[in-house]
Amino acid sequence: MLAWVADAPAWVWPLGFGALCAALWLAAAYGFTALARWLGRRPERALRSLSAWRLGRWAGAVGAAIALDAALIGCLFATSDVGLGVPDWAATLQWLPTVAGVMALWLALLWGAAWWRYPARASLLHNLGWGSAGDLPAYLIFHEASLAFLRGALGSALGAYWGAWSAIVVKGGLALLAPGSLAALREGPRRPWALLTISLDWLSTAVLVASGSLWPGLAARLLGFLAVLIAYGFVRRIAPQTETGCPPPAGNQPE
Question: Would you list the DSSP string of 114-161?
Answer without folding.
Answer: HHHT-S----HHHHHT-SSGGGHHHHHHHHHHHHHHHHHHHHHHHHHH
